[in-house]
Design a protein that fits this description.
Shape: globular
Largest sheet: 4 strands, mixed
Number of domains: 1
Number of strands: 4
Order of helices and strands: HEHEHEEH
Strand order of the largest sheet: 2-1-3-4
Length: 99
């Protein structure tokens, strides 16, 4: 995995990683959800996408078996994880509890 990915997830700011794929229909449904969450959370959280086809080693390392899979890291630790589409209000609530 890229060193900058490790540096990012080990930082002070929580990082939400969206494991996704271009061919995945539900992943496309997450785009507006993540945009709304980013709008609600601002700079309190970093949101990044990892394409499992372009980064299969990252997907394997975190045991991602379906997409979309969201993993929330804080100081390098996984604090929350879920596969599937999640409403923006629910995801924002989860992030607020961690920030």
């Amino acid at each position: 995995m890229a060193a900058n990915f490790q540096t990012l997830i080990n930082g002070e700011k929580p990082v939400l990683v969206d494991f996704t794929a271009t061919w995945c229909g539900p992943c496309k449904m997450m785009k507006p959800v993540l945009e709304e969450v980013k709008s609600n959370m601002g700079e309190k959280v970093t949101i990044i996408k990892v394409d499992i086809d372009q980064s299969p080693q990252a997907a394997a390392f975190y045991h991602v078996q379906s997409v979309p899979t969201l993993i929330l890291f804080k100081k390098g630790q996984i604090v929350w994880r879920q596969s599937g589409v999640i409403p923006a209000t629910q995801l924002t609530g989860i992030l607020k509890s961690v920030v």
